[in-house]
Design goal:
Layout lengths: L1 H26 L8 E3 L5 E3 L7 E7 L8 H12 L4 E7 L11 H11 L5 E2 L12 H9 L15 E4 L5 E5 L9 H8 L2
Parallel strand pairs: 3-4, 4-5
Antiparallel strand pairs: 1-2, 3-6, 6-7
Amino acid sequence: MWVKFVSLLLVLSFLNAFQLIGKDKMNQNIYSLNLTLLDIDKKPVKLSDFKGKVLLIVNVASKCGFTPQYEGLEKLYRKYKGKGFEILAFPCNQFANQEPGTNEEIKNFCTTKYNVTFRLFDKIDVNGPNTHPLYAFLKEAKPGLMGTKDIKWNFTKFLIDREGNVVERYAPQTTPESIEKDIEKLLNK
């Protein structure tokens, strides 16, 4: 009987410790990173400037089979930007060399071909030793299928609530239109 009681106490202690660790991680959000990003023109932008907004963070590429998603992203942005919605797009050339251009070329492509008006940022790495700190956080906060953390391809999307919490991660093939209801839910909270 005494052994069972001590075993139960040990189990409860471990559970309590794990709950405390989990609470610390849960209290972290993207704004706790205190990051300054570089936009596509290499101008600094504080991540905290987006506090209070619903964000969709996407790694993008100009020569990808999913590149036409720029059109759907722009439609979402135009529809909801007045309600506190922002899209932060990060060009990345880590997948089959599908974003080889300079920032100027990327910006020109996005604005002329897809009339993009949402925020474009400096080209970054989303995997590997030079992973951008924002993406390191996003991948840790919301792992992919079966707990994998690496970004698998261009146009992986992360939905962030107004408090900076990572709410959802979407696969590249998930179209912007198919996540509109999730965005609306967060905007209406």
